[in-house]
Design a protein that fits this description.
By secondary structure, the chain is an all-alpha fold. It contains six helices and no strands. It has helices at residues 18-41, 44-63, 68-92, 99-109, 114-129, 135-149. 37% of the residues are buried.
Length: 171
Amino acid sequence: MTTAAHIPADQLAATANADTQRPAARMGPGCVCRGFRQAVLADAAQGEAVLAEVTARCFNWCQAGGDEPSCALRLALLISGLDQWGLAYTQAFKLNAIPELSALIGALRNRLDARGEARFQQYFRQIDEVESDAIDFRRSCAAASTSLCGMPWRPAKPLSRSRTSCNRWVA
C-alpha cells in the first residue's frame, strides 16, 4: 500500500503568485552585486546615484503590488533575497559589511509606517519559518545560485529582523 505525501500549499501564493515571486528572487543578486561593486569602487558620488536608482527601482516594484498586503509581501520577498545574497557575498569575500546594502534595506524599510512595518514583519517571518510558503521564490533563488555560483542555494537565517538589524551589515 502506497501513501502519497501531502505537500502543503503555498499560503502566500494568493497574495504573490509565482509570476511575482520569481522576479523578487532575481532582483536580489543583481542589487547585491551592484552594491558590492560600488563598495569596491569607492566613488561616493557615483555610489549615491546608483543607490538612488536601485532604491527607486526596488520601491516601484514593491508598490506595483497595488494593495497594502501585496506591497508588504513583495518587500518581504525582496529583502529576504537581499539578506541571503548579502550574507553569501560577505562570507565569500570575507567582508565585515556591505554598507551600500545596509543603506538600500534601510531606505526601503524606513518608508514604512507602523502598520506597514508590522505587516512586513509578519510576511518576513512567515517566509523564514514556513518552508512551503514562497516556494517559487525559493526555487528561483536556488536556480540563480546554481547558475551564478555553481553551488546550490541554502537558506540561512535572515539578518533583517528589525529596523535596527540593518546595522548588522555595518562593521
